[in-house]
UniProtKB/TrEMBL annotation:
Residues 24-292 form the Amine oxidase domain. Pfam families: Amino_oxidase (PF01593). Keywords: Oxidoreductase. One of its GO terms (molecular function) is oxidoreductase activity. This is NAD(P)/FAD-dependent oxidoreductase. The keyword Oxidoreductase applies. The keyword Transcription does not apply. It comes from the Bacteria.
């Protein structure tokens, strides 16, 4: 691990902090608070990493969960806050950027390269989003205070770029993009876990802003987990695995662990889904099925050899309206968003599914049907059947440690609350803070790290 720089903050008023949940958000914040001199303990019910974990399939190691590292400037801001010089993650550009999008109107690589018939339309689209580019890291990492001139400037740039359109589909419609590009752009609203009709317009700009800078650590996504844990260890953070919190006494800073042990801290931070926290506080858990973001079935397959597929293929649903109606009703959509990541003999097929907590395995008829569609569109019939082994992580898996039904990005917020402009409930009660996917809208690595940077600063100001 790198040495701390001279910029390390003085450990003023060290406190004992208990963090609930050892996903990326919990361990990222733990490192930041440890750096400020606090004595930090992370309580994790299972294994550290949350949605990012290692599984072995057919003798091959896979890193589950996130596979695309976008907006790496947020990671650099995180390292800078820690006073770390250099970057042990060794982020490498991912070949093909955001991947080849197989829309019903034709295939769209993102970014669209020069010489491609869609290149001029892509450049016009990119130009529309560009004024936001210098401000995006600010929006992701700065407490949303309109009294802060830096945040105000970034918000103004967001308003200018989105042009007053509330939703991703309204923004896409207003730009009159060619149908294939419009469909491919709309697909990325699903990074908020929502159909483009329900996602904030910012999500329609994300491909333009992210496509040129998609990365992955040289040794795989697991390096992010290892690095965060090492950064925390170097700052005295203790991560207790297999330590499930079953009750939280917010005002008293107390928590109970499964098995009966009681712990007390000066400060508690929940890095859990907010609905889970509500349950631990003894409050009603409100999560109607139609107000959840999507879940998924992640299939990790060990192939006998290379698949020959590009690094990333994206297969959107043919009709977002049909898809939206199905997932809101908790029904399996006739065709769903599939992301396919190929890396030598490793294949990951991520199928979007409604957040109903179902245990959908590789042999479920719907999963088989979706895999068949993927293989047909990619021209690789029978690819998954040729695998030496396949492991599936279904909505039931994501529900076990996350939002009810396994909603990957938590509750679906109304569109006007879903972007970075709305102040989130970072402070749940005196002495009880929140971070993580369900708090910083949209989730994903940049939002989770950005949310940790925001809460670190807000705690320091109290
Ligand atoms: C299939 C898939 C693909 C994805 N792809 C991408 C991608 O390409 N790029 C990207 O940026 N993001 C991606 N994401 C999203 C990203 O993985 C998540 O946003 C991020 O990992 C969430 O981190 P978190 O810490 O907020 O939550 P989690 O990872 O859910 O962590 C919460 C932790 O709390 C623990 N916990 C729960 N209850 C308790 C309790 N009572 N006591 C103690 N511990 C408890 C859980 O076990 C878990 O470890 C993907 C997610 C999935 C599932």
């Amino acid at each position: 691990m790198r040495q701390r720089s001279a910029l390390s903050p003085q450990p003023s008023a060290p406190r004992s902090v208990g963090i609930l949940g050892g996903g990326l958000a919990g361990i990222a914040l733990a490192a930041l608070l440890g750096h400020r001199g606090h004595a930090v303990t992370v309580y994790e019910r299972d294994r550290a990493g949350g949605k990012l974990r290692r599984v072995t399939v057919g003798g091959l190691d896979f890193d589950t969960g996130p596979s695309l590292f976008t907006f790496p400037d947020v990671w650099r801001a995180f390292l800078a806050r820690l006073g770390e010089e250099g970057d042990s993650l060794d982020l490498r550009p991912l070949p093909g950027g955001l991947g080849l999008h197989h829309t019903p109107f034709g295939a769209v690589p993102m970014p669209v390269p020069p010489g491609h018939p869609l290149h001029p339309a892509w450049e016009a689209y990119r130009a529309a989003a560009q004024p936001l580019a210098p401000h995006l890291t600010t929006l992701l990492t700065t407490p949303p205070h309109l009294t802060d001139p830096i945040f105000r400037r970034a918000s103004a740039a967001l308003f200018r770029a989105t042009g007053g359109h509330l939703t991703a589909s309204a923004w896409v419609h207003s730009r009159r993009l060619p149908p294939a590009l419009a469909h491919a752009v709309g697909t990325h609203a699903l990074n908020a876990g929502l159909a483009p009709q329900d996602a904030p317009s910012l999500y329609a700009l994300i491909p333009a802003l992210a496509a040129g800078d998609v990365a992955r650590p040289a040794s795989g996504m697991g390096a992010l987990l290892d690095t965060l844990l090492a950064l925390g260890r170097a700052r005295g953070v203790r991560v207790l695995e297999g330590a499930e919190v079953v009750r939280v006494g917010a005002g008293r800073g107390s928590l109970s662990l499964r098995g009966g042990e009681e712990r007390r801290h000066d400060l508690l931070v929940s890095a859990l889904d907010p609905a889970r926290l509500a349950g631990l506080l003894g409050r009603p858990v409100r999560s109607p099925a139609h107000r959840r973001t999507v879940s998924g079935v992640a299939l990790y397959a060990a192939l006998p050899g290379e698949s020959g597929l590009p690094a990333t293929s994206v297969l959107p649903p043919a009709d977002f309206g049909v898809f939206r109606a199905a997932v809101r009703a908790g029904a399996l959509p006739p065709d769903t968003l599939a992301l396919v990541h190929a890396d030598g003999p490793r294949l990951a097929v991520l199928l979007t599914a409604p957040a109903t907590g179902r245990d959908l395995g590789p042999d479920h008829p719907w999963v088989r049907g979706q895999v068949g569609r993927v293989e047909h569109l990619l021209g690789v019939p029978g690819l998954l059947a040729s695998a030496r082994d396949v492991v599936a992580l279904p909505p039931a898996h994501y529900a076990a440690g996350g939002h009810p039904g396994g909603a990957i990005y938590g509750a679906a917020l109304p569109v006007w609350r879903g972007g970075p402009l709305h102040p989130q409930t970072y402070r749940r009660a005196p002495g009880l803070w929140q971070v993580g996917t369900g708090v910083h809208p949209g989730g994903g690595i940049p939002a989770v790290l950005g949310g940790a940077l925001i809460v670190d600063r807000l705690i320091a100001q109290t």
